[in-house]
Amino acid sequence: MSFIIGIAGGTGSGKTTVVKKIVARLPKNEVAIIPQDSYYRDSGHLPLEERQEINFDHPRSLEFRLLIEHIKRLKEGKAIEQPIYSYLTCTRSDETIFVSPKKVIIIEGILILQNAQLRNLMDIKVFVDADSDDRLMRVIQRDLVERGRSVSKVLDRYEKTVKPMHLQFIEPTKKYADIIIPQGGENKVGIDILTSILEKNLRMDKK
After folding, report:
1. I want to staple 32 with a disulfide (CB 3.0 to 4.6 A). Which of 88, 102, 169, 195 is the partner?
2. Which residues of 70-79 are buried (b: 16+ CB within 10 A; e: fewer)?
3. Residues of the chain with pLDDT under 70
4. Where are the domains of the chain?
């Protein structure tokens, strides 16, 4: 039986850094990472201009049903074909990533604690917290480099969608978290606690 950990938090909060630091300390062949971002709905049927205006911070932009189905399959010891999503084209690739069941499954994403069915599949729920100014700086850096957006476009999107969606849909999910990690990847104590829980679970699994 897989041990499921959900790591949520606002855009630019440091979730991915937390995940990387945890994974680096666990046996490679015993951990699978399932990013929420792979499960954004395909928008290939829309004109490019409309695709670029998609609100990625709203729950309806995600295909939760498929994500839940895949987590259930992994818990049952069955492999999945994880979708591949491109932020540049806002479409899903025809190709997929084969993911085999592992002892530890990490689900990571801004909205993963928003869905009750998905939450109920998690053994531990984590919320990575960060100051809004720090998050904005990380969002600007990431969107410029990885998503080909201009600074004005990033700031406009932050003001119109990222900030209000965070307050409406993401920040309230903090109440569901078993563990809150302030300062993201810089919080060594929080990461140590999470890693020790997972290591203990892996040891018990081997007995």
Report:
1. 102
2. bbeebeeeee
3. 145-148, 206-207
4. 3-185
